[in-house]
Amino acid sequence: PWQEEAAPLHYDVLHEDAGLLAVNKPSGLPTLPGGGFQERTLLHLVRQAYPGASPLHRLGRGTSGVVLFARNGEAGAALSRAWRDGAVDKVYRALASGTPGWDTQEITTPIGPVSHPKLGQVYAAHPAGKPSRSVARVLERRAGSTLLDVTIHTGRPHQIRIHLASVGHPLLGDPLYAPGGLPLPDALPGDLGYLLHAHTLSFTHPLGGQVMTVTAPPPPELVSGRS
């Protein structure tokens, strides 16, 4: 009934077995239907080849990287419990604006909904928000920007974008969050322009019991040591 906005219609398989599927989502492709997208989503593409696959988490449209799917109920239930219990380690690669004076920084800015004049309500830094924790580590300082690995220990909406903005280094090109972690008042709906990549997920396989680490190669702009 409507024309969906253009989006990259591909993904790479990183791992598959009887219980799990891990794929590398490109930036620009929504994970789930919503916001005017129905068929141009990762879920729709994956289910064409893997009927019944169920995503265990989601990435923002502009975020690339590892998305994990369960292929049966047993695997899905076990990994959902692991996610709730904090037993899944998540490391993201990010390009932040500016040059921080630290090499490693723990960020615990609370995150909660705030009012916005155009978007209605968005998540942002908020003193009454939920406790949140990220640890950012500098990989490479560039002219006007910094390449970081960010480990998240909680899963709040837009956590990395908000946390880096809250310490004065929003993602380079982020159309929504300003230094301090609050949204820009003139921001419009959209989730593109920044570079953020779900680099690795580490977890215990719900069926085999082995410890697994799935890695998605980052896009060229997020590779350390590039010329």
What do these coordinates show?
- The protein has 227 residues and is mostly beta strands.
- Helices cover 12% and strands 34% of the residues.
- The chain is built from 3 helices and 12 strands.
- It has helices at 42-49, 73-84, 159-166; strands spanning 12-16, 20-25, 54-55, 63-70, 89-97, 104-107, 111-116, 120-125, 134-142, 145-152, 196-204, 211-215.
- The strands form 2 sheets. Strands 1, 2, 3, 4, 5, 6, 9, 10, 11 and 12 form a 10-stranded mixed sheet that branches. Strands 7-8 form a two-stranded antiparallel sheet.
- A hairpin with a 3-residue loop joins strand 1 and strand 2.
- The termini are far apart.
- The model has no long low-confidence stretch (mean pLDDT 93).
Number of strands: 12
**Average pLDDT level:** 93
Counting helices, strands and paired strands, the structural category is mainly beta
For the biggest sheet, the summary is: 10 strands, mixed
* Structural shape: globular
Q: Roughly what fraction of the amino acids lie in strands?
A: 25-35%
* SSE arrangement, N to C: EEHEEHEEEEEEHEE
**What is the terminal-to-terminal distance?**
46 Å
Question: Helical amount among residues, as a percent range?
Answer: 10-25%
Instruction: Evaluate the radius of gyration.
Output: 17 Å
Unreliably modeled segments: none
Number of helices: 3
